[in-house]
Specification:
Elements lengths: L2 H14 L3 H16 L27 H8 L4 H10 L4 H8 L4 H8 L7 E13 L14 E8 L2 E5 L4 E23 L5 E14 L3 E8 L5 E10 L11 E14 L2 E15 L7 E12 L4 E5 L3 E4 L7 E15 L2 E14 L2 E2 L2 E2 L4 E11 L3
Antiparallel strand pairs: 1-2, 1-17, 2-4, 3-4, 4-5, 4-6, 6-7, 7-8, 8-9, 9-10, 10-11, 10-12, 11-13, 12-13, 13-14, 14-17, 15-16
Amino acid sequence: MQSVPFAHGFSACWAKQIPNSVKLHAAASLLALSLAPFTSGQACAQDVDRSAGEDFDYSALTFDQDLAQALEPSPETTLAQASDASQAPGVAAAEAAGPSQEALAKAAQNPIASMISIPFQWNATPNTQWAPNAIDPDAHHDKVLNVVNVQPVLPFQLSDDWTVVTRTIVPFLAVPWADPKIGVTEAGDPYLKRWDQEQRVGIGDINPSAFFVPTMEGDFTFGFGPTVGIPVSDGPLGSGKWTAGPAVVGVYTKGPWVVGGLVNNMWSFAGDEDRADVNKMLVQPFVNYNLPKGWYISFSPIITADWENEDNGWTVPVGAGVGRVFKVGKQPINMSLHGYYNVVKPEIGGEELLGDWTIRTQIQFLIPAG
């Protein structure tokens, strides 16, 4: 969302509507405000509770515009604030410092918010087995599946009515795997002696998505668009197939709640002919309840279905997590920790290889536009 033109136009329009006497009064008050931080014995911006405006219930889709509208002053309130500035310079500085922790938390929980963000998400599933015992009798649930997703989100305003929000997932994987150890019989025939188990590390299929989001009033917003899978690795790290399909997301924001869901399905249409076809669905419901001071409770499992798996291709986790939005210097950061129990796990060769628990840790850098 491009907030600079809006802010500039708002300031120019506002200035035309204020009498000259009011302008002089406001200018004098603003001068006093600018000198106030240097006065001893007065509060700093950091010491002030930034909870002003916590009750503002905005749609994170129009993050900057709605925030500006919520803080838009009338001439009367502007005069009152200017006259009180010398008495409460810390409060004025806090209001000018940007959106509150609660507002940032809501935007961070909305996958189609008009805000730049860079999340780093680590999913670790211990007690994972690399292959069925029918293939490797020595395979046990003693490995860890690690998936680190780097998924930058970039919004682009197409018009007053439409915004496109792009999200590109780049997965860095550490997958339990094994290489065959081949022996030779006395007759010269090769045979499989054992499997040398290891961790295969690399980049998985890159997954860019684009959501077209209409500008809407009210508590509900939605987006839709294409999602694509780009193969960059061989073996267990990637599918070896180009995939594509539709994606849709809906978000409802009301009071402390941010509730919604994301769904996509991808089919293979090109790639390595020797690799299996791809037909996979992803469903991610999310329920977030925001608490004071940037804290929140979150339920956000990642449910997947592999329609090509003839045994059972479903993964259904159940769990929750806790997170908080805070600032390091001027940089807003969202951190969270989740734990999910895999109630339903996919089967390969009639065996469940995935571990029972997945631990998800995320750090997300938030960059409000403007």
